[in-house]
Amino acid sequence: MSTLPRPLALVDGRPGGAEREAVAAASEIARRIVANVETVVRGKRPQVELVVAAIACDGHVLIEDVPGTAKTILARTLAQTIAGADASRIQCTPDLQPSDITGMSLYDQRTREFEFRPGPVFANVLLADEINRALPKTQSALLEAMAERQVTVDGETRPLPRPFLLIATENPVELEGTFPLPEAQLDRFLVRLSLGYPAEDGDELAIVQAQRHGHPLASLEAVVTLDDVLALQEAVASVYVDELLQRWIVRLVRATRELEMVELSASVRGSLALERMARAWALVHGRDYVEPEDVELLFEPVIGHRILFTPGFDAVGRRLTRAEALRQVWERCAAAAPRPSLAR
Length: 344
Fold this sequence. Notes:
α1 crosses α2 (45-56) and α1 crosses α9. This protein starts with a strand and ends with a strand. It has helices at 17-38, 45-56, 71-81, 98-102, 136-140, 143-148, 183-186, 201-210, 226-235, 243-255, 268-284, 292-303, 311-316, 322-336; strands spanning 3-4, 61-64, 82-83, 87-91, 103-108, 113-118, 125-129, 150-153, 156-159, 165-170, 191-193, 224-225, 262-264, 308-309, 341-342. The chain has one domain: Rossmann fold (3-Layer(aba) Sandwich), CATH 3.40.50.300. The chain has a 5-stranded parallel beta sheet with strand order 4-7-10-2-11. The chain is built from 14 helices and 15 strands. The protein is globular, with a radius of gyration of 21 Å. With 344 residues, it is α/β, with parallel strands linked by helices.
């Protein structure tokens, strides 16, 4: 069995002194963001940490859950946590047009010239609420923004502000009047997650009591700046990932391509996303190195939405939730690609 060097061993590729300081400073930034968001979104620390890790990766987040589980509140809280961040919200509906997102050029009769009016996509944090209610042509208007951080309108390409984070929500319960996201666009999201209902009575009671005199968002203050977020993103590259772990990540993703239950497997983008998210997850938890447990925990939220099951498996697995089906995928991939062990 392959073995990893102990995390504290001095090996080539580990961060140097300056890099460790940058990682430590970035971890503190992540801790402040998580703590601030938790004052509003209570009892959902793992999910909040996932979103913060996605921000550190300069990635986008898809939140799929039933109404009333704080999907929109989470996005608004994140935007309010960052001082100076421009935040926009799009309420997706079937009559929403691509120009309603990207902006358009309007003719100014005074100057006799066309003037570009930027759309809500020109923001640091963009919330696309109920994205699956928008028409496919409107959904596709976000593809260029998500992949290249730019928008092309009337033949002219305009860069988006940095950082740029898209948080999209969708309701899996109501299917009438919705348009499922195509696989190509799902692949652009770094992670997909669900918030769920409060796990304990105490969490829900705390939410009720906290809103007795108004919503906590009204008094929420920013705790980081845009420059802090950029520093957080730059520090991710300094987190150490042993080559054995990198090889394991690649083998796990490749294993999805050998499963009979999977029609569309994870691509190379999945390998890149899992490796980078593992770095960010370690950083959020105050480490400058990645552990095998990080990869195990992140496999489903990072890889799960990149997988399309075969119609035969869908028919057999209707008694399974998607989470249970993805657990089967993980177990089979882990069996095909055993995890490396730490050297003692």
